[in-house]
């Protein structure tokens, strides 16, 4: 039995595009906060909110990825168990059906 190769879910171009769009949006928002005509307290509040949103987005993405990887491993283990049972089962043995 051959093991299936692990397939990358995204292409390099998609990864680069996602990283660039994240970086560009982050820089644009930081510039917007810096140029905003408000006081230091308001600007600090917005910057702190930005830090929390970015860190929580990364945490959420990691949790989703971990859950997906755990599901894939569980599916592989279940498939291996079923394959083992099917191999051990001799359907042509008398009295089996």
Task: Pick out its properties.
about 100 residues; mainly alpha; elongated
Brief description of this entry?
Helix content is about 75%, strand content about 0%. It contains 2 helices and no strands. It is elongated.
Folded structure, characterized:
The chain is mainly alpha-helical and 97 residues long. The chain is 75% helix and 0% strand. It contains two helices and no strands. It has helices at residues 12-35, 40-88. Helix 1 runs antiparallel to helix 2. It starts with 11 loop residues before the first helix and ends in a 9-residue tail after the last helix. The mean pLDDT is 84.
Q: Over all CA atoms, what is the radius of gyration?
A: 25 Å
* Bulk shape: elongated
Which structural category fits the helices and strands? mainly alpha
Strand content: under 5%
Distance between the termini: 27 Å
- Mean pLDDT score, rounded? 84
List low-confidence stretches. none
The level of helicity is over 70%
Succession of helices and strands: HH
